[in-house]
Prior knowledge:
- By secondary structure, chain A is of the alpha/beta class.
- Chain A has 24 helices and 14 strands.
- In chain A, helix 2 (28-38) crosses helix 3.
- Chain B folds into 3 domains: 4-76, Roll (Ubiquitin-like (UB roll)), CATH 3.10.20; 87-206, no CATH class; 244-417, Rossmann fold (3-Layer(aba) Sandwich).
- Chain B is built from 12 helices and 17 strands.
- The longest helix of chain B has 17 residues, at 78-94.
- The mean pLDDT of chain B is 92.
Amino acid sequence: MKVAHNPKRTQLMAVIWEIQRKKRFVSHDDITKIAKLFNLSRMEVEGVVTFYHFFHRQHAGNFTIYLNDSIVGQHAGMKDITTVFEKELGIKTGQVTDDKMFGLFETSCIGLSDMEPACLINFKPFVNLTPEKVRYIIRALKDGAKVSEICDDPKSKIRYTPGDRAVFFGAYQSFSALKNLEKKPEDIVDLIKQSKLAGRGGAFFPTGLKWQFARQHKADKKYLICNADEGEPGTFKDRVLMQEKPELLIEGMILSAYAIGASEGFIYLRGEYMYLKEDLEKVIQNYRDKGYLGKKIVGKDFDFDIHIHMGAGAYVCGEETALIHSMEGKRGEPGTKEYFPVEKGYLEKPTLVNNVETLCSVTKILDMGVENWLKLGTDKTPGTKIFSVSGDCKYPGIYEIEWGMKVKDLLELTKAENPHYILQNGYSGKCLHPLDFERPISGESVLPDGVEVSVNNPDEYKQKMSNVGIKSGGAFMIFNSDRNILEIIKNVQQFFVNESCGVCVPCRVGNFLLNIKLNKILNEKVTEKDLNELVHWSKIIRTNSRCGLGMSSSNALMDTYEKFPQIFEKLTADNKNQNEKFDLEKATGEYEKIITEIYTDYE
Amino acid sequence: MNNIVNINIDGKKIKAIKGENLVDVARDNGFHIPTLCYYKKLFPLATCRICTVNINGRNTTACTTKVDEGMLIKTNTNELLENRKAIIEMLFAEGNHFCPSCEKSGNCEMQNLGYLMGITHTRYPHLYREKPVDFTPHRMLMNANRCILCKRCVEEIKTKEGKRVFSFVKRGNRTTVQIDYKQERKLTDNEAIQAMHICPVGAILVKGESSGKPFGERKYDFLNQAIQPKLKNKKFELKEGEKFVVGTTSLAGCFGCHMSLLDIDEELLDIIEIVEFNKSPLTDIKGFNKHCHVGLIEGGCANSENVHVLQDFRDNCDVLIAFGECAIMGGIPAMRNFVPLKETLEEAYLNGITTVLGADVVPAHEDIPKLLDKVYPINEVVDVDYYIPGCPPNAQHIWKVVKSILLNEEIPISHEEFKYD
């Protein structure tokens, strides 16, 4: 990569990536040089480098290995795989071999939940790992094989589509939706509003409304960003869309840019998906060659082009203001919410941020016509939804379902045995109890905020909830009745401790303290007071945090507490006779060990 | 004028200029929304979340809110007050805030918020994580133990060329503020002092400039806001001729709190009319021979004996009070919590400059209490009913709390009696 003499700050991450890829770490001198190049203080660059998980200040190994530590991976046997890696390489996780050949690290979900255990080596995917396969990989790499030669080509199985009612994975003739460029931009915004499309990243903000705001704000330049930072553990639908249907995405971007008046577009691609970059760029080039990207598109006064911006390992960058900061070459901290990005976003200009699935929907809605789209799904949530299904089922993979399908029918399709506990929206979403399996997956009859029905009375719950839709972002992690739910929750909470950006107090400190409390509850003596504190602390974090990360970090924990109270009650019941709170033996253990050591040495 | 909007704060109808900052509008109309990171010259940082209020049913920070027509704002519901308290407690638990040994004590904005909210202790366990003190910069030093990551210095202090002097480094709970040494040298003396002043706590200090004012003359020493203690125990019933029984002890403390206990001077004579002391250094009674109404504990738990004594007090006292910073958060003895136990012992007995040649042995005997892995605040060992902060706590504060409990009446504590240092 050539860097101009006076580069823009927006190039900062790309420059750091370049160094990281070439040298496997960013040295002190590199940071000094970058600071000089970008006319920044050294420490500010240090702040950016150290924010991202995939940028290393120490050598990360010529072969940098990232093992996925999400719960689905663990259930699939990641612990054994880790042991094999550690044994074969002679290092522990988090270390690099003496010859700097291999570095072994853990990372949050890498978007391959249906092919676990999985890892990335130099950002190339390796899936369905077995001890033999790991030994083979290491041997091959030691013998000089190239990573790109031995890595897998992870194609998710598309397990189900609703036949001729399929939207995303139905037939599509490339470029066909682009005939809509003949329409007026404001008419396209209206069509999207009529379609009732809502943000498919999981927040379900009405897309048309967002477009209208973005269109309304006048500026000399506007931006469109595709959020492909698919960081929610358990979701991989955006990866599959980019692999299987990139044309839907690119055309969706062209159409939305046209609708809101954006002249530059970006795909913020998560670092974990670096192996998709090359193919995506080819597709983009194809559209450029055909005249659908560039200047004066289809002869209109419409200039638009798309570039890919690589993320570098930060879940919080899925939050749109954090994502924008990251693109600006800053730490990926969420903004203060004084302005919406559609008013003041990337480089202070109106910016529309939409998820991959949302943009793909746009292409299909405009192509099939809004009236046909509205015939699919339910009234409030028309169309179809893509589910990333993983965990304890026979057929993990991608399911395109019409909104309105019942949970039990989806479970039936996946051939899940004894499903008992489901995280229906990744780690930040709520959980499903077997009593919820009759409920439809849709946005219909959703309960207002704060209204909760207790599962303590199963008949009442079933009766009151049977029609209440589950608005799911699509990360559907199934766990059977043999799984330890507390272990799952522990993994979830640890994830949020690792991924909190640290900028606001309730999320940074609250999640850390909540995790300590949870570990105490799991490992030590538990009192009722501990459980009450768990609930209370969760609420404080949820109601005071700056962004969605803190607001949703305790969703799974709290919903589990509501729906599976017996798990927590059992913990206190087990400890009824142990009122003594302080473990003196444990507290003096270290001292005794030291004294024994000292006096043994003297003899 | 159409840029005037009508808002409602805590039931009061207010006219304000559209787009004004809510914190300022509220203050101008006599409503105090507590803030910590908010600094009027800056665009709002919204890092601390203390100023969270309820607007039209939703919680959001006041510092990022521009007033608009029809806003219905609640600034002090019980939930909001509780949340604010919790956030300040989180900060005290996260950092290593030893008020008695901090240059900024008395001028510290976070400490003052603690006073105003009547915070006596944190509900969260103290983390005692080792954090660096960076003396390297030319004129400043950065004490990460005290930093609350408010981001004021990061956004405000820049060189003439517009380069940042302070930056956030790392992520999540490992985030620290670090000084860029080269840029720091470019600041003028006044700019360096400005950096120290905008730090709401004692994290940024300028070498040679941090001499504090004496007690009583510091910024937050007198604010005339009394703290109302809340009683949670039942009333004690005494039989005719009986006195209240009180026990006291000092664990890992310096006995300073006990000294302060005696500082009410002639009022002691009144107290002795209604109180008798049982197990206490004041009476030299070694073991309980009566059940006590109230036990006062000074000092935290540093060794096994401290734990046994404390548990004995819990068993023999109806009400247990932690008095002094050491009992509440470990205090000065807890400064060893950042050092591995082995290193602590080696420094004390083997490698220290005062060790005598040939006598360099770590003492160990079954009669010597065993050191704990760290110094524990007493509420991590037993349940504690009340807390009296201070180093030492003010004598009036101690007795007001004890009297409140014994006589079952809530006697307010004045601001000058309520201190963490």
